[in-house]
Amino acid sequence: MMTLGLMTLATLQRGIITWPQEKPKRTLAPGCIELPDHHLELEFVKDDVCWTRPQVQAMLRNLTRTFIEILETHDIEYWLDSGTLLGAVRNQGVIPHDYDADFALTKASMDKLRTTAIKLPEHYVLWLLHSPIHPWSYRDEALPGRWIDTRSGLYIDLFEFFPHANVSRTYTEKLPLADLKDASLKKGIVTHVAPNITEDSTDVIVSVTYTRVQDMMAPLKSVCWVFCVECHEHAYFQIPTAWIYPLQKCKFEGIMANCPANLHMYLRTLYGPNYMVPDV
């Protein structure tokens, strides 16, 4: 199987490439919901089994809680990512109507997970690229790991974040003059640009462009991140390390889980300034 991020491209067998066909829609029992194929590991999907929305929520809840317990038992660092982090902030749990979960691990933590023997609970399997002890299956560099519920095919995506030191990035911000923190810059604007205003003026908006050199972290650029709203580069979720560390605890499905230090900027980058407003 060849994959690119979250998108399955084709199956390669003996040099012959075949493109996957959409599964025909089936008649569901009352109360069951249709689970999107692209949110499932299809080899675990059983055609004669369907799930209600509360059952899906419960499986996602157990997926995340079980995996958090395993990571913390083995002292493997992680943090909630993407929609799972958004759910922690909005709902203190899985987002209603979600179909998967997302965790982030540094390269060092992922390497530790790759070589850690885990007693797998019933109904769960770990797929992990470049692991000498866990199966790789269809994983790729962009999305190297999955923790899967084998009853349903629901899963947690595991993203590997790599460090990038001394990254230079140019920012432009618009803000009221009174909110400008650089005192010398504020004084220069009043003195040389707009001498008729005061430094505490709130009705004057200034545009400030500056360059900052800082340590960054990022997973590989891939289609997994094409919907990132405020990423500086398309499909590349590179953010300051200071937004991640020190990790903090946040409530998630009745337990305390690891979350990034700057929840607001992390989620704003992914989903835009209105990330707290649920989709209609």
From TrEMBL:
<feature type="domain" description="LicD/FKTN/FKRP nucleotidyltransferase">
    <location>
        <begin position="73"/>
        <end position="272"/>
    </location>
</feature>
<dbReference type="InterPro" id="IPR052613">
    <property type="entry name" value="LicD_transferase"/>
</dbReference>
<dbReference type="InterPro" id="IPR007074">
    <property type="entry name" value="LicD/FKTN/FKRP_NTP_transf"/>
</dbReference>
<dbReference type="GO" id="GO:0009100">
    <property type="term" value="P:glycoprotein metabolic process"/>
</dbReference>
<protein>
    <recommendedName>
        <fullName>LicD/FKTN/FKRP nucleotidyltransferase domain-containing protein</fullName>
    </recommendedName>
</protein>
<dbReference type="Pfam" id="PF04991">
    <property type="entry name" value="LicD"/>
</dbReference>
